[in-house]
Amino acid sequence: MADEYFFALTLKGKSSEVWDPEAKGAEDYQGGHKLIIKQALLGPEATEGEVNVVQVEAMTWKDSVKIPVATLKAGGPNNQVLLDLSFPDPPVTFSLVQGNGPVHIIGHHLIGSPMEEFDEMDELEEEMIDDEEGEEGAEEEEEEDEPKTKKLKQQIAPRAKLRSKTTPRPKSKR
């Protein structure tokens, strides 16, 4: 199961911040790391009327892309923005390409389970598969018994008809 942690960073001036937990020696987790960004907002000390643009550089399935993800303006309704950005592969670079900030970026850092936990899960899955195969085998045996029962009924039914024609029924006493 993945562990979830609060993530936050602050951009000021022309600064950049890189999210790369694997560079810090945290690569021994199956399922890796995932970053989910939920909000960007200006700090109260941001210059009124100044436009601040946050840019992200991240990997797509084939190459790197740089794109603005938030445009914020102090002193108005655009001083914060709700986001739903998911970055499954580090590294991710956040940059303030316009304005002086500060811009606070908030989200979640998801970490996959340690390798040992995945080994235990593999063993449990194998046991569950073995149990399911045992149950399926019992169901198949029941299905195999069904045609035998039908054959027996088909064989018995004509004999019962034959007996009823050849053997007289005893008369009931009333």
From TrEMBL:
Q: Name one GO biological process term.
A: chromatin remodeling
Sorted alphabetically, the Gene Ontology cellular component annotations on this record are: cytoplasm; nucleolus; nucleoplasm
What PANTHER family has UniProt attached to this entry? GEO09167P1-RELATED, NUCLEOPLASMIN
Provide the alphabetized UniProt keywords.
Answer: Nucleus
Give the start-end ranges of region Disordered: 120-174
Q: Where in the cell is it found?
A: Nucleus
Protein name per UniProt: Nucleoplasmin-like protein
SUPFAM superfamilies attached here? Nucleoplasmin-like core domain
**Where does the record place Acidic residues bias?**
120-146
InterPro entries xrefs = Nucleoplasmin, Nucleoplasmin_core_dom, Nucleoplasmin_core_dom_sf
- List the molecular function annotations (GO) for this entry: chromatin binding; histone binding; RNA binding
Comp. bias regions, Basic residues: 160-174
The similarity comment for this entry is:
Belongs to the nucleoplasmin family.
Q: Where's the Nucleoplasmin core domain?
A: 6-111
